[in-house]
Amino acid sequence: MTITVLDGPLGTVLIERGHPAPAPAWSATHLREAPDSVLQLHKDYASAGASHHTTNTFRTRPADVGNDWRHLAEKAVQLTRSAIPTHHRVMGSIAPLADCYRPDLSPPNPGSRHRELADVLSGCGVDILLCETFPHIAEGLAAAEAALQTGKETWLSFTAGPQNDLLSPKAMGQGAAAAAAMGVSAILVNCIPATSAHPYIDAISGYGIPFGVYANAGSKANGVGWGNGQDGANRYAELAFKWAEQGATLIGSCCGTSPLHIQALSKTFADKS
To answer: Is the pLDDT of residue 224 over 90?
Structure first.
């Protein structure tokens, strides 16, 4: 099987490495205060086997980081590009305007605000615009439409949240159908517990475009991440192999995982290819 290995989380790993990330800037804080650590983490994911790398632009918005948001977004792209091999691909992250676990806060008519960041990321030369962690179908589609207007390849990833209660598989499937019809190049699900990803992967399959998943570790009791070391990484890779059997070809990891998980993924799929 041919699997594209994505990278893993930035924010939760950097917090584990001793770099606080207070709201509202969250991981964007590290662009100002720990850029060398952001650079090193991108390098770690490349060394672990990821070929697609997400910029630290999840929170580079005026409301979150202030008037120098463009500079920080550009810096995030530069850090990513300089850390990875030239043949790897850079994915510019575009996230919900409000909290990614609060679809009730999604604003009306968000397209123009998503287009601002999409234009900056496109201008910096990212390879893909990744609209990610959307719990609100309409806002996710608006972000994807804004990204597509730049002419860049666009992927869209929905989330049902850490409790799988923000979107049903049926609703996510409807979102995937609309996204495919719109022209996105891939549809994904992210930041849902790895142990319960199966129905969501089924929901986004069958729309004629590649699909995939980058799940979170769930609770520490699940034994998948949050400091569970190599055993947790191996458990994640076992689950990911089942996702590949469902047809997923784009696989990475999300909150609570680490470069160990990406390394385990890379080894698993290399051994099975």
So the answer is: no
The CATH number given to whatever domain includes residue 198 is: 3.20.20.330
- State how many domains the chain has: 1
Residue pLDDT, tens place only, 147-202: 999 999 999 999 999 999 999 999 999 999 999 999 999 999 999 999 999 999 99
| Strands of the chain, DSSP E | 4-5, 52-54, 89-94, 128-134, 153-158, 186-193, 211-216, 250-253
Question: At a CB cut-off of 8 Å and minimum separation 6, what does 53 contact?
Answer: 7, 42, 45, 46, 80, 83, 84, 88, 89, 90, 91
Residue given tokens 């999604």 in the structure block? 106
Rg (CA), the chain: 17
Structural domain containing residue 162: 4-272
Residue 120 parent element (H or E): helix 111-123
Sheet (strand 211-216) strand order: 4-5, 250-253, 211-216, 186-193, 153-158, 128-134, 89-94, 52-54
